[in-house]
Amino acid sequence: EERLSLADPEWSDVHVVTGALKLFFRELPEPLVPYRLFNPFIEAVKLPDPQEQVERVAELVQSLPPSNYATLRYLLAHLCRVMEHVDANRMTRQNIGIVFGPTLLRPEREPGNLAAGMAQQNQVVELLLAHFDHIF
């Protein structure tokens, strides 16, 4: 069994660690937001009323399997802390949405219009971050 140490110099680059984290989530057999909830999350961010969006997404998050819920909450809490250092890392809510949207939330089959779908995936992550305290 190979043992890793985060003290090794190869892990000092935050991009390596972030890449490994994204790869882990991307290679799960099913995304953190299960396939069955992909369309409901996308439909929620399309709602015209922002408060309705938040309420619907909160309901959907509560319907996640317990392990998915706990993992998503932990990851997003960490990403909220990352955003607190935006002056140093340039990781705005929008940038985090771009980086993690397609990783955490993806359709079972790729749609014809990939760009439009990705924008909405990003919006879901942005909404989760913006309203973290209310949703979780």
Short description:
One of its GO terms (molecular function) is GTPase activator activity. The chain has 136 residues and is mostly helical. It has helices at residues 14-26, 35-46, 50-62, 66-83, 86-89, 93-104, 114-130, 132-135.
Account of the 3D structure:
The protein has 136 residues and is mostly helical. It has a single domain (20-134), classed as Rho GTPase activation protein (Phosphatidylinositol 3-kinase, Chain A). 68% of the residues lie in helices and 0% in strands. The chain is built from 8 helices and no strands. The chain has helices at 14-26, 35-46, 50-62, 66-83, 86-89, 93-104, 114-130, 132-135. The longest helix has 18 residues, at 66-83. It is globular and about 50 Å long. The relative contact order is 0.15.
List the helices and strands and how they pair.
Elements: H1 14-26, H2 35-46, H3 50-62, H4 66-83, H5 86-89, H6 93-104, H7 114-130, H8 132-135
Helix pairs in contact: 1-6, 2-3, 2-7, 6-7
Q: The CATH topology, please? A: Phosphatidylinositol 3-kinase, Chain A
Considering the protein shown, what is the CATH homologous superfamily? Answer: Rho GTPase activation protein
Structural class: mainly alpha
Per DSSP E runs of 2 or more residues, the count of β-strands stands at 0
Shape: globular
